[in-house]
Specification:
Blueprint: H1 2-14, E1 29-32, E2 37-40, H2 41-46, H3 49-56, H4 62-78, H5 88-95, H6 105-114, H7 116-124, H8 130-154
Antiparallel strand pairs: 1-2
Helix pairs in contact: 6-7, 6-8, 7-8
Length: 161
């Protein structure tokens, strides 16, 4: 019995908890400018304004410079000393980078067929596509609204009387 308990304890202590690897700021690249050049988050957090302007090929306005400095400050605060990201929001964003983009037919037809009520229904559906669905529901509602305005002003459709 003692030998069996040691064998079970040995198996229990030998188990390993697997964790997802942390994201490193030096391994995440973003496109900069229209030339397609890439820069890592670590480099972006420390780049000088003049170097950023030469990298993008565009002279920044005063407001853009202030915005970039603020973004760099926030980015530096999310990077640990070992180069890993300590912000859950950035990690979640990077894991979902491919999801929620492009045309969302369900949201569009909610807004297109049900109008304002369909756009509001899109807010009630909670899943990983909620943001994209609500965007396309509002676009669908906008398309119907524009069609009604055009038909109403041309006299083809008398919706307002």
């Amino acid at each position: 019995m003692l030998l069996l308990s040691f064998a079970v304890l040995n198996l229990v202590f030998a188990s390993e908890i697997s964790r997802t690897p942390t994201l490193k700021a030096s391994e995440i690249f973003l496109p900069v400018g229209k030339t397609g050049k890439m820069i890592s988050l670590l480099e972006l957090s420390n780049i000088r304004m003049k170097d950023f302007e030469t990298l993008t090929g565009k002279k920044l306005s005063f407001i853009e410079k202030l915005t970039l400095e603020g973004a760099q400050r926030k980015l530096r605060n999310t990077i640990n000393y070992d180069g890993t990201l300590n912000s859950r929001k950035i990690e979640k964003l990077m894991k979902k980078s491919g999801e929620g983009k492009g045309f969302q037919a369900g949201g569009f037809f909610l807004g297109f067929l049900l109008g304002l009520i369909g756009a509001l229904i899109a807010y009630l559906i909670n899943d990983d596509q909620k943001k994209n669905r609500t965007k396309w529901a509002w676009i669908g509602f906008g398309v119907v609204f524009v069609i009604i305005i055009i038909l109403g002003t041309t006299g083809s459709f008398n919706y307002f009387n």
